[in-house]
Amino acid sequence: MIRFLACLAFVVAGTAAAASVTVTVVDDAGRTVTLAAPARRIVSLAPNITDTLFAAGAGAYVVGTSRFTEYPPEARKVPVVGDATTLDLERIVGLKPDIIVIWKSGTPAAQVDKLKQLGIPVFYAETVRLADIAPAVRRFGTLAGTSAAADQAARTFDAALDHLRGAYAGKRRLKVFYQVWDRPLMTIGHAQITDDALSLCGGDNVFADLAQAAPTVTREAVLARNPDAILGGGDGGSLDGWRHIAFLAAARHGNVLAVDAPTLALPSPSILPGVQTLCHVLDDARTRAGP
């Protein structure tokens, strides 16, 4: 009996020690964030962050999320605490989070200051290229103590990307205008992850020289760059105006196309089906454009 109690005490002590292991991760602002134990109550303030946390195996620990969160579907059941510009601070405090994960470039400084005043650890996340996604999954896995699941998800994601890169590396490249909205006319710049997806699929964004994520451009500027293909998402406004311009290469080859890929602008693991769809659309456009 004494030996049993001694063993039990050893197990309990070991469990307590494991639970109290500190966690240290460097965030995307270069800050070292240390927690006394893996996070078990996490508030996410961007849809892509929530998706990445779920991919990292930490979905059960997400207690608050932001408006417009759609992926993965089970994340829609998590209580909403606001969005990038308006937060319900009282509700956030009531959720008693161990950490708040913030979109680095999308959360206004005034909101961040208010969050810091709550005394809750803050972690900045910023994913702008496809190569940033797997490391983000691993960092979140470390924060939540789910590293094994996170590493598996990260390796699976990178393997899928590598497969696509290999499949499209030798394809003839097309000049592409990607329409985000038509009034005003908006497109993607280099800072938008869709620009990276286009490049992987063998497309060259004709406005990659613009630093903004979603710059406004003129119709004349698009015509001057004469893209081989004009693409737009389901909510990108009407593409019809481009189809009747005879001298435009994209119109001449029937390459003014809608892309049914709702996750294509989401910088998180759920972007992958969108990238695959984009690659197929560009492959079809490449065939129509001819040699």
Could you describe the 3D structure shown?
- Residues 41-286 form the Fe/B12 periplasmic-binding domain.
- It is elongated, with a radius of gyration of 23 Å.
- It folds into two domains: 22-157, Nitrogenase molybdenum iron protein domain (Rossmann fold, 3-Layer(aba) Sandwich), CATH 3.40.50.1980; 170-289, 3-Layer(aba) Sandwich (Rossmann fold).
- A hairpin with a 2-residue loop joins β7 (174-182) and β8 (185-187).
- The chain is α/β, with parallel strands linked by helices and 291 residues long.
- 39% of the residues lie in helices and 16% in strands.
Q: Structural class per helix/strand content?
A: alpha/beta
Beta-strand fraction estimate: 15-25%
Unreliable stretches, pLDDT < 50, 5 or more residues?
1-19
Number of helices: 10
Helix proportion range: 25-40%
Please identify the top-level CATH class of the largest domain. Alpha Beta
The CATH superfamily of the largest domain is Nitrogenase molybdenum iron protein domain
Protein name: Cobalamin-binding protein
Domain Fe/B12 periplasmic-binding: 41-286
Pfam family, one: Peripla_BP_2
InterPro entries: ABC_Transporter_SBP (IPR050902), ABC_transptr_periplasmic_BD (IPR002491), Vit_B12_bind_prot (IPR054828)
